[in-house]
Amino acid sequence: MEEKKYSITIAGGGSTFTPGICLLLLEHMDRFPIRKIQFYDNFKERQETIAKACEIYLKENAPEVEFGYTTDPETAFTDVDFVMCHIRVGLYAMREKDEKIPLKYGVVGQETCGPGGLAYGMRSIGGVIEILDYMEKYSPNAWMLNYSNPAAIVAEATRRLRPDSKILNICDMPIDLEEKMASMIGLSSRKELDVGYYGLNHFGWWHSIKDQNGNDLMPEIKKHVAANGFADALSKTNQHVEQSWIETFSKAKDVYALDPDTIPNTYLKYYLYPDYVVEHSDPNHTRANEVMEHREKNIFTICQNIIDKGTAKDGGFEPDAHAEYIVDLACALATNTKEKFLLIVPNEGAVENFDRTAMVEIPCYVGINGYERVVQGAIPQFQKGLMEQQVSVEKLVVEAWIEGSYQKMWQAMTLSKIVPSAKVAKQILDEMIEANKDFWPELK
Ligand code: NAD
Ligand code: LMR
Fold this sequence. Notes:
This protein has 444 residues and is of the alpha/beta class. Helices cover 48% and strands 16% of the residues. The strands form three sheets. Strands 3-2-1-4-5-6 form a six-stranded parallel sheet, with helices on both faces. The termini are far apart. The structure holds nicotinamide-adenine-dinucleotide and (2S)-2-hydroxybutanedioic acid (LMR). Substrate binds at residues 95, 149, 287. One of its GO terms (biological process) is carbohydrate metabolic process.
């Protein structure tokens, strides 16, 4: 029988992550053979720069792979097996507002946590649902692997609005942290860890980490986290190297101190130490500025150089090692590997004492028919309390989007642990509405 080869569409073709993912796909063709790669974006010029450079690279390195890029949904989503979706509705210019508007009121400004994340959620829902609908219309058997942020809100929206769709929502942060924990204790890969984890996206905890023989690795990892957070480890990825990330990895030590039975996701610092985060933020220069000044500028300069020279042989592009999990996930769906991943899925009792309809982040086995949850049991009161508040915030945002409800969005902002009062919530919301008028549904 002839080997099956897959057709991939990368949605958000103009993303700074696209070249890295494209090269990574080529690197793994022995286990995940590809016949076609297409880019899709709704911003023609931005995508063109990335795509033309990738086209040159592909011609030189994998001429057998058919390549195309388009802003036309029918062309992009016809004859596709997998859609890899990483869009940023509003681009970095809007991320900057997500971060800077809350900071004006002394509130954490972050792209996925607190008011910034809620604002970004209100922009992302429509974009991701639109791409899901295109995929289902033109390639009804395809799978969408979504890692567009804010993943918690996007996942809840897909649960509410497209419950039967073939979409898996996944985040790279737990993967990066597992790499760090493996490296801390001298293991070569996170794949040597067998983990128990529960939470919401960007809001979770490891409660068990064993090696493949069942030996408990938590005591040794905890020693490192108690002393230095995640800073003891250097992961093989190069994604998180800026100063702001180094501080985040160190601060995990103080987050861990609150519950030494579990190991926390780094994003919990925004909820548990918001005062510290605000004190250490520059309201005039946030992560969006860092990324625009470095990552975005570098990628577009590299692409333009490749286009000008007509060759990618002088280098510049690198496979995005941190994104290997996306290939693993596609492989699991395509070839039934039954590998375990942390996915964002409807709870349905996997976290026993928690809302069955919540989108939780938990380990799942993935195979040809999708995912099977690994039951995590009952969670402690501390985590349950935090998660109940946060899941309500996320559900209220999705309800606000569906119903066009100002009231629910105000409730969501007010309920966010990071926001001090309904008054401040309203001030931030009103400014966010003005800033997002091209992207949000009208709220009444
Ligand atoms: P980016 O701004 O560089 O690229 C996003 C692209 O999406 C842009 O080219 C934009 O034009 C396009 N886009 C926006 N709305 C669209 C729509 N409705 N339809 C089609 N295309 C659309 O952003 P980025 O930094 O590359 O991030 C992309 C997404 O990936 C974000 O949501 C980000 O939070 C997420 N992210 C994922 C990971 C990961 O797990 N690999 C890591 C970091 C960021
Ligand atoms: C995040 O902050 O979660 C991501 O968008 C990663 C990044 O580079 O900012």
